[in-house]
């Protein structure tokens, strides 16, 4: 890699693909894909990224501890976390029986009443393990509340779920009846 850090590059790529592709003059298809070359060209217009290469982006994706991006057939996309106005279309999949969600205590009453909703994002983010839910929840509050989601039951009832990556699942929303706080 060049002198830039993989973490900084991941943040820039996430911003471009998840939140404001128009600032980079990128066109995303309905599944969120854009050519790697287009992304690299767009990043190179920024002073901090003049030396970035496709190989840098590919290495960042391949070695990232958190699987936030995917490269396939010369194209790249963010796997989840989009706040774009248009909806990224994902393929519905069967989730694990149980998933978890970490949240701030102030939101628990609304979740008990209304279920989990995507809020400013396109999808609700769910974790495959308690540790990941704890880490996500800690970004919202120093003492997050952990929720157990009966994903298998919800899917059987017709709630669509989508695979984000090995540790993250996505849903359009989860009704309150499938959610219980962990003790």
Question: What report would you give on this structure?
Answer:
This protein has 183 residues and is an alpha+beta fold. It is elongated, with a radius of gyration of 17 Å. The mean pLDDT is 88. The chain has helices at residues 6-19, 36-44, 54-63, 108-114, 130-138, 151-156; strands at 34-35, 69-72, 75-78, 99-103, 124-127, 145-149, 161-163, 168-171, 179-181. The protein contains six helices and nine strands. The strands form three sheets. The protein has a three-stranded antiparallel beta sheet. A three-stranded antiparallel beta sheet has the order 4-6-9. The chain folds into two domains: 6-78, Arc Repressor Mutant, subunit A, CATH 1.10.10.970; 99-181, ADP-ribosylation fold, CATH 3.20.170.30. Helix 1 packs across helix 3 (54-63). Keywords: NAD, Transferase. Removes the 2'-phosphate from RNA via an intermediate in which the phosphate is ADP-ribosylated by NAD followed by a presumed transesterification to release the RNA and generate ADP-ribose 1''-2''-cyclic phosphate (APPR>P). May function as an ADP-ribosylase.
- Return the CATH architecture of the largest domain: Alpha-Beta Barrel
Rounded radius of gyration (Å): 17 Å
Q: Shape, please?
A: elongated
Instruction: Supply the CATH class of the largest domain.
Output: Alpha Beta
By DSSP (H or I, 4+ residues per run), the number of helices equals 6
Biggest beta sheet summary: 3 strands, antiparallel
Spatial ordering of strands, largest sheet? 1-3-2
Q: Which regions contain 5 or more consecutive residues with pLDDT less than 50? A: none
Any idea of the CATH topology of the largest domain? ADP-ribosylation fold
Mean pLDDT: 88
Give the amount of beta strand, in percent. Answer: 15-25%
């Amino acid at each position: 890699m060049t002198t830039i850090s993989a973490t900084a590059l991941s943040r820039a790529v996430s911003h471009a693909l998840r939140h404001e592709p128009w600032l980079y003059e990128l066109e995303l298809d309905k599944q969120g894909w854009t050519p790697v070359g287009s992304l690299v060209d767009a990043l190179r217009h920024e002073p901090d990224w003049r030396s970035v290469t496709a190989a840098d982006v590919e290495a960042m994706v391949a070695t990232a501890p958190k699987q936030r991006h995917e490269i396939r057939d010369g194209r790249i996309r963010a796997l989840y976390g989009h706040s774009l106005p248009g909806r990224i279309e994902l393929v519905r999949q069967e989730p694990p029986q149980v998933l978890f969600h970490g949240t701030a205590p102030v939101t628990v009453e609304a979740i008990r009443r209304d279920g989990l909703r995507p809020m400013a994002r396109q999808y609700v983010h769910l974790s495959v393990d308690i540790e990941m839910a704890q880490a996500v929840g800690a970004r919202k509050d120093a003492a997050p509340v952990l929720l157990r989601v009966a994903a298998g039951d919800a899917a059987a009832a017709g709630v669509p779920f989508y695979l984000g990556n090995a540790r993250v699942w996505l849903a359009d929303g989860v009704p309150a009846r499938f959610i219980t706080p962990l003790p």
